[in-house]
Amino acid sequence: MNTSLKQWKEAATLILTAGRRLGLDTLSSRTPLEGSGCTSRCSRFDYDVLLLKRSAQSTFMPNAYVFPGGKLDSSDFSSDWLDVFKSFLNSPGFGLRSVKQPAESRPPIFATNRLKLGSPIPGEVALRICAVRETFEESGVLLVVPKTEEKRLIESFQDTFCSQHHRAHELDGDELSKWRALVNRNPSNFIRMCQELEVLPNIWALHEWANWLTPSNRYGKRRFDTAFFMCCLQEIPRTLEDEREIERFQWSSPSEILRSYQARQLWIAPPQFYELSRICRFPLLKELHSFAYQRATEGCDQWMPVVVLQDQQHISLLPGDKLYPVDSSKQAVGDFPKDSRMDDSPDDSKLHRILISDPYTATLQITVKPKYNHLHPAVEQTFPQNSKSQL
Prior knowledge:
Structural class: alpha+beta
Oligomer: single chain
Radius of gyration: 20 Å
Distance between the termini: 38 Å
């Protein structure tokens, strides 16, 4: 792990989407959120997104609805993974596609040379292992591939396998509960589980999406440098709370979630608000998956929001905004001084910000062009017509 990071803990999270399967075991979880005010525009989505409600006792963002994920563990970098992935050791990056973004502009969480830190596991592999493990711990969704498919995987790295929708691995209920309890008790048991069940964490189904850093003085002393990945499943898998950090789960369309947030039925943090608004551009799962798969090799920016206060409104500045610090690392501890003034210049040519009037009222202002072939949030698709949001 990158021990040189003093202010942030490295983490990985997964935006997990799935085609709708309204069977008896998933009907209640996919019912539109109460108070969402969902209209026919919600039903145009043929997929749902998994959100997990953090426990009220959580030390980081209690009661928030979040994507599954968590902090990197030393076991995610264990040399024992070399045995699990031994058939892939001759493939660069264990078969992951290379990213076009120059190394010098890559976010440190991806660019850090883990070998120099003593890890034989590439960072982009360990981050995906972490996302798969944490998703299993928190939701019971197991994203693995049987080792019997190793040959087909290797042969298809340059073909279409990785661009196809994937399925979660279904374990017997008792077997699932047993391994989930063991992994929750000790993350290193995830390696043991993969070895005994002869499966591989499906790192190839996860597509690089974004990198967010927790701003200072917002959610307590804990700050995370988090890699966001996208994964598209063919259908909604069986999902269970971990009854420890997670109180409940919800599979809902992106627009349903955002409307519930506006209706104050649930609370999501700015990164979730931004990313859910972004994927609202894709009403069809196949379109979202195609975009995520193709865009993933472009790279991504490191986004550390810098929060300022103006007229009783918090403004979360993002890279590219005209007021974003040239060297945001200098604002890593205290953001702008309390007596700093926002520039009231009429020049709106460079806006990339989230206006936060209260915890449930957020407005996006974006005029800058997204980098790395990414897309802006679809504000017009997620807010009422009288919204003051603007692109």
